[in-house]
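Human: Note token order:
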Amino acid sequence: AVCAFLGSTVTTGCILPCVENAVYDMEEKVVVCAVHCLETLLQLSLISSRCLVIDMVRKVSALPLHPSRAIATSATCFLATAAKCLGLVDSYLFLLPEISACLQYQLAPVELTKAVLIDALHKPVSRKRYREALLTVVNSLGSLSSSNGLLFESSLVA
């Protein structure tokens, strides 16, 4: 409601970065609220730039596989709303490639509604597999930063 009063410029410049950060929060309720907020901003046409919509889709694209049913559901609703905002052609050009890893099968050119997406999406992963995948990513990022540090140190010596 406040964003509707402030307008799209202030929303995309000031509010959106805060909501983006909340999508990566550790608390599941915060993530659900952040994704729902993104959906509402799309519905109110406060995120009107196609590039911003696609960027938000990228940030939410893996969440339909999250073990939390609430997060998975809110992410699916957001993706359906994003597809509606983008239109049929842009949805197939930009949205589908971002979520293709989450799909069980390739979708025909139909409107990407919540029901269509729910049917096509893989089932959410278990919490155990989710934690294992998260640890793998964190460990790989840790090894990248430490190897980059070694490269940086060796370049200083040379």
Notes: The radius of gyration is 18 Å. The helical segments are 2-6, 8-23, 28-43, 50-60, 69-86, 88-99, 114-120, 127-157. Residues 148-158 have pLDDT under 50 and may be disordered. The first helix runs from residue 2 to 6.
